Amino acid sequence: MDRLKTFINYVKQHPDAIEELRGFLHSLEKEIPISILNYHLLELSHDKSLPPSTRRFLLEYSAERALRELHISEALRIYSTLIKAFPNETYREYIEKVRFFRFLERYKFLLEKYRELNFDELQKIYLQSLEKDISVERILQDQFKIPKEEILEALERYYQIPALDIRFLLSQKKLKRLPRVTSIKRHFYEENLAIPFEYEGQIYLFCYQPEDSERIEKVKRILQLSEVQLAVALKEDIIFAIQRYFEFSLEDREIEITETEEAPPEEEELVDSAVVNLVNAIIEEAYRRRASDIHWESLTGKRGLLVRFRVDGECFEYAIIPEDQKRSCISRIKVMANLDIAERRLPQDGKIKFRTKDGKSFEIRVATLPTIENNEDVVMRILGGIEFRALEELDLQPENYELLKKILDLPYGLILCVGPTGSGKTTTLHACLKYLNKPSKKIWTAEDPVEIVQDGLRQVQVNPKIGLTFSRVLRAFLRADPDIIMIGETRDKETAHTLIEASLTGHLVLSTLHTNSAPETITRLLGMGVDPFNFADSLLGIIAQRLAKRLCKRCKKPYTPQPEEIQRLLREYGEHPTKPLTEEMIREGKFFQPVGCEECNYTGYKGRIAIHEILIPDDEIKELIINGAPAQEIRKVALSKGFQTLKQDGIIKVLWGETTLKQVLAVTLR
Q: Which one of 41, 111, 124, 596 is most buried, by most CB atoms within 10 A?
């Protein structure tokens, strides 16, 4: 503060030395907070003994620094003083500009940590937000990687009211809806960016711009909210909350139960725009959330239609559609899939080609099933959602990656990828085909359905309804000059026999099988009745795999495992003759635990990581195959040669910090 006093005295003694004053102020900024410096500059500018040019300089300097620190209200006051004392059109233009950007003052507390966020930078962000119709907060999160929690904290400090994460509170079911809200059109809330909820026994009006008192009072008046607490929330969260408000749930709606039998909806009802929009919105939301399946489940007792999404292998409830719209929704789906809307007693299958509002296209496989009380369920499988990956992106351990490349480089033989439905077999096979896909190779594939399209492959969609089965397509492939053949699934003895014959006649053949592990695949095929000599001769390798939930990269939190957890890891990994797990390896590992954020829908997990076991048969294992040895004996011999089980591979990926032991144990047996 001594230097500040020195500066003030210098101004009074040398009132015309403006350039020297500017240099002095620049040096003071490094020592004194801008707000304190501005206060003294404004006090000094009121000194009538100073020349007008110096007073003007001090006011301009204060206004510029106030803007830089996002003290926009203060900058407006200074410019108003300037225009009164020194009338100038430039100041009037500045006042108009600053008024337009006054909204940005709410971010001033972010500057304490993010110095790159000055007034000029935020102007650009604000204009970009208006152009793209997204919030400034969303741009700050996406481009500047500022956590949502820090933005909410800054808003709370600025407005001095709670700043709450609506998405999180909704996910935790901590917000209760007010019945009277849905009596007002949804557009009203979207226009005013405000929506009320009951939270912890108090009614809160969540709004985006609490300073807009006119809008706030309008919402309170129309909803007749007398005792209400204001809370600030982010724009996209408020829009999301409004959308959720107008979805139905059991606790929000009393459903009148009647004994009368509902007649099938007439065709006119099926084109009802509300139902069309509802079904489309649910499909789009499922696609946005990376869902693999949508389940439409008719509840008994005329309680409506439950909609569930499967994301990362796990189902969760999304919404409940009221009883009076249940039949219309199911009929709408049937119309989209070209199914018979009058047939409710038998299962039906169909397909939908769907295009989202932003132009993304994908296919949906539809299956309807009759359920009790003359109801129907619908299950939609979203196709095309499978990510196309390269071999390097399959989460393989380096040694397994080299093993897989080694067998793919062989000229002929049989490679099997095994695991239950939804374990990523198609992704793995297409990654293998991408590695093999060269102009010198002719590659044929038979799939049901074709979920990934690759240039350079000749892909056939099987259709059992007309007799175009896997075995029939495979026999046709052998007459079509193939180098490499991929068969989507080995379902019967005929297909298995033809696969082995094809691999023995100079073709590289890839296929999948629904078995639990690599050793069990051998016993399954032998149980189908394939010739053990030919099978042993043709087999190049078996890849078994599962998908475990991957920790969210944005919010996962590092931790040090306790001794009991280390012992659990050692116990679950078990004994291994050539690749034992040691306490030292565990201590060197990276351990993370799930937290939960907006990015992962507050689950702590986003996406999945593949865990593998790869069995490459040598002469000893081929001898066991020929002799029909049990899977346990084959596994024991393979372990002695460096084979790792699915669980062991998963535990290595726990040490990588990609998943948790709980998730590995959820998808593996041994």
A: 41
